[in-house]
Write a structure and sequence with these properties.
There is one protein chain. By secondary structure, the chain is mainly alpha-helical. It folds into two domains: 30 residues, no CATH class; 218 residues, Orthogonal Bundle (Urease accessory protein UreF), CATH 1.10.4190.10. Helices cover 63% and strands 5% of the residues. The protein is built from twelve helices and two strands; from the N terminus they run ββαααααααααααα. The chain has a two-stranded antiparallel ribbon with strand order 1-2. A hairpin with a 2-residue loop joins strand 1 and strand 2. Helix 3 runs antiparallel to helix 9. The protein is globular.
């Protein structure tokens, strides 16, 4: 016996008991549009998508040098705070509002959110990180997946496009729903943070995957909060992480650009 449910717009088979044989199994398929949306999200937010994310640590490099992060447990706690109370949540809010504005054809809203998202970067290096990744994301998307609406949306922003804004614009232009776009984006962000931490602490592959698994409920909860939040709900309480991004600018030896 099996039941079908839907998670963030993507059908998924949930088995309630083991089928007696292959003939009794229920096959759930995606529509052509759903399959294309999933394919694009997996590509755009894959670690191999060339936005240069591997070059940045979002201040984690300084946190390791300062002794704030020393093992898998301390990395998990640090990233959980960055997700739920820091840059992760704020970027999710910007993505959601850009997606809404782009889908509604609200050019004034696009300009407001794009400007605010850039101004919210807590340090020079974090601004470099998010703006460089945003520019790369837009350029590669335009070249590999051109869409007539995307160029107009970019022009309507009238400000440098940071990473979460770029993801929201491209997702909306291609008609991909907000929820899967949000969760794929946050998964990509936390995966890159863990990758940086694994190289800096260092951690093995198993410990890295344990951190990723432990952060799953935090990523999901942060995504839901971000989609329901207004711009007035924006706020960052991760002061130590912000200080880390500033201290990294003058760190003597560095592997990462932020």
């Amino acid at each position: 016996m099996a039941t079908t449910t839907v998670i963030t717009g993507i059908p998924m088979l949930m088995a309630t008991s083991k089928p007696a044989d292959h003939a009794s199994a229920v096959t759930v398929t995606l529509s052509a549009d759903e399959g294309a949306a999933l394919y694009r999200l997996m590509t755009w937010l894959s670690p191999s998508f060339p936005v240069g994310a591997f070059s940045y640590s979002s201040g984690i490099e300084w946190a390791v040098e300062a002794g704030d992060i020393t093992d898998a447990t301390s990395l998990r706690h640090w990233l959980s705070a960055m997700l739920s109370d820091g840059g992760g949540f704020c970027d999710g809010v910007f993505l959601a509002h850009i997606h809404h504005a782009a889908s509604a054809g609200d050019d004034a809203g696009l300009r407001e959110v794009a400007e605010l998202a850039g101004a919210f970067a807590p340090s020079r290096e974090r601004l470099l990180e998010t703006s460089t990744q945003g520019k790369a994301f837009i350029e590669i998307s335009l070249n590999a997946w051109p869409h007539p609406a995307l160029q107009r949306l970019i022009a309507a922003c009238e400000h440098p496009i940071v990473y979460p804004v770029a993801v929201g614009l491209v997702g909306a232009a291609h008609g991909i729903a907000l929820a899967p776009t949000m969760h794929a984006f946050l998964h990509a962000v936390v995966s890159n943070w863990i990758s940086a931490g694994a190289r800096l602490v260092p951690l093995g592959q198993t410990d890295s995957q344990r951190v990723l698994a432990a952060l799953e409920p935090v990523v999901v909860a942060t995504g839901h909060r971000a989609m329901a939040a207004s711009l007035d709900d924006l706020g960052n309480a991760t002061f130590r992480a912000d200080i880390a991004s500033m201290r990294h600018e003058t760190q003597y030896t560095r592997l990462f650009r932020s």
